[in-house]
Amino acid sequence: MDNALLKKPIGSALVSMAAPTAVGMLLTFLFQLVDTYFIGQLGVKSLTAISFTYPIYILIVGLFMGISAGLSAVIGRLLGEGYIDRASYLIGLSLVIFGFLSAIIGLVCYLLGASVFELLGMSDDLYPLVADYINPLFFGMPLLSAVLIANASLMAKGVMLKPMLVMAVGGFTNLILDYVFIFGWGPVPALALTGAAIATVISWGIMLGLMLILLVKEHMLPLHFAESLDKVALYADVRDTARLATPAIAAQILTPLSVAVITRIVSAYGENAVAAYGIVTRIESLALTGILALSVIITPLVAQNYGAYRQGNVSFLRLDNIIALSGRIAVYWGVIFYVILALIGRMLVTFFTPEQQIVDTAYRYLLIVGFSFPAFGLALISASFFNGIQLPMLSLKLTLAKTLLFTLPLAALGSLFSETFIWVGLGLCCLIRLEDMAA
């Protein structure tokens, strides 16, 4: 096994893992922004419709991101300890189990239908547009869950560049198919929001095929069952994955749940406010790409070094240095991109809609909430580090405190005054949590 992650200088290891991950995420977010731009050409109602679908979509994605985080931590530890066969069988088993689980979740969400979105404050006339977009995504969830698991498995080994290229191929495919299926081309009719969803599902299928090829080439996917496999050890690995994934899932889904609640709160101020919130969440994701990428790679990097530390092969000081350097990078990134959004944020929003009220509301969000980017980054890095050293409950406590004690209460309090004070509440929650961490 390549032990580069155990031997490289920490700065070099972080850059070599985070750079391709950031590029892959950047491309994905850019394609999502273009997707939002195309849908914006269909009108404000279509833009509002996809804003209502966003919390439910990221809630499901968060579930499987949590599973992937737990799986990545276990695989990273197994590879660090030298148990390569056990890692590969765990990956194969996870693809089957969680692919089936995602199919069930997608079906349940489809059957629940309008009742789910009514809880978010959606008006009845919007539901046909919402259903046109979200229903194909529900049925494509097994593809996405398998992509996330495969990607996390490859990252746990330190394979970063090739998955990034796969994400780029999928994003570019989605971009091309978006235009074709949304507006129609040649024999393909204009399918509007349904077309955008179909393009996304097709791109997921392409990414999954390429990810599976990578897993086979990296010898991380078993092609046959070995009689000599230690089934007791495999069961223990599955149990460890569940133990680590459960709090990671809770941490991951708390964020989209809070987005769902905030969407409900914002909906009291009308469709334009919801549309503005939907736009800025996408711009925010793009601006925070570096921090998000760093938080993703911290878990497998720390997990491999933690596994080697348990074997006496590396010093705990190396783990301490990983979190220290990552924290500094997160703060610098947050400050730089807050300044950038303060300067060009209004122009970015006008790219999606000419509606002045939406533009003003969205820009106020970027000015107010963007101030907390550095604090947000530190909290995210800390949570990922705790997952890597097999202490997921500490990670969960960070997220629980941020969401339940600060984010939702402050947003609700702000809504009593105006939509601007909702943004103030969201910005304050990260700063208060940072002070609590420092204490």
Q: What does this protein look like?
A:
It is a single chain. The chain has 439 residues and is mainly α. It folds into two domains: 4-229, no CATH class; 248-438, no CATH class. It is built from 17 helices and no strands. It has helices at residues 4-7, 10-40, 44-81, 84-112, 114-118, 127-139, 141-157, 161-183, 192-217, 231-267, 271-287, 289-310, 316-350, 356-369, 373-388, 392-415, 419-438. The two termini are 41 Å apart. The relative contact order is 0.14.
Radius of gyration: 21 Å
Helix content: over 70%
Which class of secondary structure composition applies to the elements?
Answer: mainly alpha
What is the rounded distance between the termini? 41 Å
Name the overall outline.
globular
Work out the count of structural domains: 2
Instruction: Give me the count of strands.
Output: 0
Q: In what range is the share of β-strand residues?
A: under 5%
Largest sheet: none
Note poorly predicted spans. Answer: 434-439
What is the average of the pLDDT values? 82
Number of helices: 17
**SSE ordering:** HHHHHHHHHHHHHHHHH
